[in-house]
Amino acid sequence: MGDRPYVLLSCAMSVDGYIDDAAPERLRLSSAADFDRVDAVRAGCDAILVGAGTVRADDPKLLIRSQARRERRASRGLPPDLTKVTLTWSGDLDPGARFFTTGESPKLVYAPSGTAAELAGRLDGLGEVVDAGEPLELPVVLADLSARGVRRLMVEGGGAIHTLFLTSGLADELQLVVAPFFVGDPSAPRFVRSGVFPQSPERPMRLAEITRIGDLALLRYLAGERV
User: Residue ranges of the Bacterial bifunctional deaminase-reductase C-terminal domain (predicted)?
Assistant: First the structure.
């Protein structure tokens, strides 16, 4: 895989491309069966990445839920949980977030040079802050993860992070679950933001799999050349 991990993007969205609505509570786009599928996908990866905005908005634990999957990982000599990774430009992260306070695996925070030192002091050992350049450079992040033994990276959003990986041409696979309803609110967040995407009509992704999960549809696309 060269100097970066295999990168798998995972997202659930409405038919019209929204990953949430504008209400205070999180919109449920998935189902129990799909959550279990995502858990299985997580268990096959080495690290999981979300943006700092997702850490702030959703306060995710990013743990493997199934005890059986955790035990199978341990039997193969792997840690029960994945290495947690986040990207931040502003350094606005709460040390009390569940990203930092749950799980025993490493927590890695990649930040620009101008932010990294102050953030490291504020996190006080809860996670390792890594200087990713000025400005933050995604290839630096991926090369550092590869050097740490991360061969397979799962990226769970949000929209700005998915956009960054896709527009940078650094996504190998996209697992997109489509929920059977519309949101229709222009103020709500979408799967991706505006950008120049190499996955264009002239260079489309390859549809590798379609799976029905109740009324949900899982579309698995191969987005890169390293497949």
Answer: 5-215
